[in-house]
Amino acid sequence: MPRRIVILVACIFATALAVSAQCPTNEIWYTTTDGAKVSTEKLGEPVIAHTYQDGKGIIRFDKPVTNIGNDAYYGCRNLQSITLPNSVVSIGDRAFSYCLSLTTINIPNSVTEIGNWAIEGCKDLTSTTIPNSVTNLHAETFKNCENLTSITCLATIPPLFWDVNIADDLIIYVPKKSVKRYKHAYGWSLYKKHIKPIK
Length: 199
Prior knowledge:
Layout: E1 6-9, E2 27-32, E3 47-53, E4 56-61, E5 67-68, E6 79-83, E7 90-91, E8 104-106, E9 113-114, E10 127-130, E11 136-137, E12 150-153, E13 160-161, E14 171-174, H1 179-183, E15 195-197
């Protein structure tokens, strides 16, 4: 049976990859498969504290985090989950590319832009949520995410969508009132035959 990628677009709160708590704006929370701390060399902002205890890593900065820079966690093989603060407005190119163990990424409803190949090659990622604040999904955001089966996008107005490297047999569910809009939107229109209203 062919593998499906399902994109759900809704104007309701996210149910996939929900987190029970929101981290402070000057912190990033994460977990790893081996309990080891991740590298902070490419984060682009001075780190004032970095701990990993009780099953959770905390990276603390001296000011609110607004950008996850290019290659910030590129190739971080032990990164399993990450929670970004509600101050981040952009996720850079390849920020989480080839985080092979990543199963959960919490993108807050402050992010407006997700960069090129930002989540490429995350083979353990099976679902994720794009908040309604996102207006631009750059090239091949989810390229080679071979086990990705569900994306929930909360925008009722289609964000710019440049991804041309996702499964041909995907199903896209959108709010009933947005079906026509998505079918005619740039990028999304390539998959118009797969766009259906949410039941």
